[in-house]
Amino acid sequence: MGFKTNSEDDDAVSEINVTPLVDVMLVLVIILLVTAPLLTQSVQVNLPKTESTNPDTQKQPFQLGIDAQGGITLNKNGMTDLGQLEVSLRNEFAHDPELTLHIYADSAVNYGRVAEVMALAQHIGITKLAFVSTQK
Question: Model-level pTM greater than 0.90?
């Protein structure tokens, strides 16, 4: 049995085989992912005890309703026109400059009516407006 020697087979391979390197790196990543949660340390702290408090119910937002016909109610009190609404809002704004106004507008109301009410509130100085809608 004779072996054939070829001078081309004796040359050194000039390419690096990266498969073992990738295997080792993947094993190291897995080890890191497994041990990282174990390394987190928590600090035990005894927090001070306090008494529970009731929320401030006096600062409820004002509820401004606009029905389908354009009628206006402020905290369930009917208003005859925008003038009466302006007087009521000015009085409340004078007592509380941080007045919050929640607007409940019917889906059938003309948008122009809602815009009039918003412009009136802005003219008075009320900047905290919120639109309230229902979920289906």
Answer: no
